[in-house]
Structures are given as C-alpha cells and as structure tokens.
Amino acid sequence: MAKISIGNIKNESLNTLKNNWGTGILIHLCFFLISLLLEILNSLEELVFTQVENSLLLILIFLIIFIIMNISLVNANVMGSLKCFLELAKGKKLEVKHYSFGFNHMFTAFKVGGAFCLFTFLWSLLLVIPGIIKSISYSMSFLIAIEYPEISGREALKLSMKLTDGYKWDIFLLGLSFIGWAFLSVLTLGIGFLWLSSYMDTAYCILYLKLKCNRIELFEELEREIYL
Predict the structure, then answer these.
(1) Could you count the other beta carbons within 10 Å of the beta carbon of residue 84?
(2) What is the distance between the alpha carbons of residues 160 and 180, in angstroms, rounded to a whole number?
(3) With the C-alpha atoms ordered 49, 52, 113, 137, is the resulting torsion angle positive or negative?
C-alpha cells in the first residue's frame, strides 16, 4: 500500500492553485450564495406546513417533496463545486462552467447524497465515533459519482470504502491540518473561507486521484460493469 504524504498533497494543492485563486474564489462565492438561497427556500417549509396543518396527507406529501428537493439541490451544489476542482487537479483549467455539472446530474446527486446521509446517520446512531469513521470511508463517493454519474448511490459508497481502506487516518489528518486556517477564516468574518475552501477542495481532489491510482483495478472493474 503506497504511503500518502499530507505535506506533499498540500504543497501540490498550492502549486496547482497558482494563477487560479480568483476563479476558485468566484466558484465558492457561487457555492455560498446558492447555499444561502437554499436556506431561504427551506425557511418556506414551515410556512407551507402551517397552511396545510389540518391535512396529515398533504403534510406528508410536502415533507417528502422537501426532503427530495433538499437532498438533490444541496448535493448538486456540492458536486458542481467539486467538479471544477477535480478538473483542476487533473491538470485542466479551472473554469466556472463546470459548476453546472451537479445540476445537470440531479438524480446522481440525489442517489449518492441520499445514500451518504442515510448510512452516515445510521452509523451515528451507534455512537459519534463510528459515524465519523464511516463519513471518512464514504468521503470519496461524490468524486466517484462525478466521474461515473451512472453509478448507484450504494455502489459509490462501497467503492469509496474500498478506496479509503488503509487511508482513513491520513484523510482525517488532512482535514485536521486545515483547522488553524479555519480559525483564521473565522477572524476575517468568514471571508477567508473563500480561499480556504478552494485550498481544501483542491487537496481532496488531488488525494482522490492518488488513491485512485493506488486502486486502479477497482475502477477498471467498475468501467467494465458500466460500459460493457
């Protein structure tokens, strides 16, 4: 099993982001604005339920609609942002146009996002630690789904578990290494997160590509199942 150097990944991320910071900031500005819009839409949920409070059936219908809409839109937003930085990590130009990917693949966003939320929640019912471990195991599922939109949600999680096997501690430490930057970003009233998010997304995309190279046989098998 090939070793992963967190320092090398972070240095590679910074080098990759040279001359791309402006676009990265624009992408995450879009991400935060869309997230804010989704929060506003969620606030309408209580208003809708108030209007139909006398009908249990209508409440159930609207609840299902809101859950599906939430999972689809929130995760489409995540996948759109990650798509941009995955292209950058592959040596291509960082472009805002890739952001539309997530919204063009809403069903994929729903499948993978729904499976991620459900299984992470179920493991968290046991205790906090198992939930954290499983969330790390599933952490590559969105990037896998971006490259293979035809994959099912459960298959994306299974492949992510195989991909991260033996590397969960490295992934945890990579996330932990950004805590200092997160505190500094808070001191800038959150503005610093526009830079930090670009840095983190690039690092995780680079890590994903390295893990993929280490387990390339998994993806060769997946491609045979999907395309043959």
Answers:
(1) 31
(2) 27
(3) positive
Question: Which pTM was predicted?
Answer: 0.89
Mean pLDDT to the nearest integer, 196-217: 93
What six digits make up the tokens of 57?
A: 């059936």
Residue 130 banded pLDDT, cuts 50, 70, 90: confident
Residue 223 backbone dihedrals phi, psi, to 5 degrees: -65, -35
Least-confidence region, from 8-17, 123-132, 155-164, 173-182: 123-132
Determine the distance from the C-alpha atom of residue 16 to the mean position of all C-alpha atoms in its chain, rounded to a whole number: 20
Tokens 């969620």 belong to 42
* Of 93, 68, 212, 198, nearest in space to 143 by CA: 212
- Round to whole Å and give the CA distance between 26 and 24: 5
List the one residue out of 140, 148, 139, 141 whose CA is nearest residue 112: 141
State the DSSP string of 70-108. Answer: HHHHHHHHHHHHHHHHHHHHTT----GGGGGHHHHTHHH
Q: How confident is the model over 187-212, as a mean pLDDT?
A: 94
